[in-house]
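Model: You mentioned two targets. I'll fold them one after the other.
Researcher: Yes, keep them separate.
Model: Target one:
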Amino acid sequence: MRYLVWVLRLLVFVIVLLFALKNTEPVQVSFFAEHIIQDVPLIVVMLAAFILGLVLGLLLMVGAVMRRRREVNRLRREMDRLQDKLEQAQQSPVSTTAVAPETVAPLAPL
């Protein structure tokens, strides 16, 4: 399975490299307020857009990741607390003397 993943990564890399080599024509990039950058290779523009999208996507995921991490830590603490409680219950001597129900609560009124 590991080799298949590396073969797929190599295949994607080669495809992206061939795509980059075919898209080296200079383009004009227009920003807001009439700011223009001339003769930028197309692949640089595409790479910058990809990286910007990747960074924004990761920033949007940070909240969910932190929330899940806090929940996992809370559940681990609760599990440790319950395991400690179970160990204490197993170590404490259990009363084996039977108590008749009548001594706890009489069935008939006196």
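Model: Target two:
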Amino acid sequence: MIDTITRGSTNVFADLGMADAGERKTKTRLAMAVNEIIGGRKLKQAETARILGIPQPRVSALAHYKLNEFSIEKLMEFLTALDQDVEIMIRPRMHDGAGAVSVLTVR
């Protein structure tokens, strides 16, 4: 029986105690955007590989969110290869605590 319920944060990786939680969250959000575009365009892995300039097995890794071999920069490059604009905005922190990186998708 569960006695208490603990509310998680907005970062499941931080909740799991991962040291690189911020980077993992950013990579996942970028990969989600890439995979949504690929899915929306109904691209096959071979065509996706050609567009992104990577071998098909890496497309498969991306589709399955195996992101260790992808940098944040590379994921942003994939988005631009898929005809998306990527903007980076730097602003003063709005809340107490350390600064944060967030990925927002505009559709």
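Researcher: Noted. Anything on target two?
Model: Residues 21-40 form the longest helix (20 residues).
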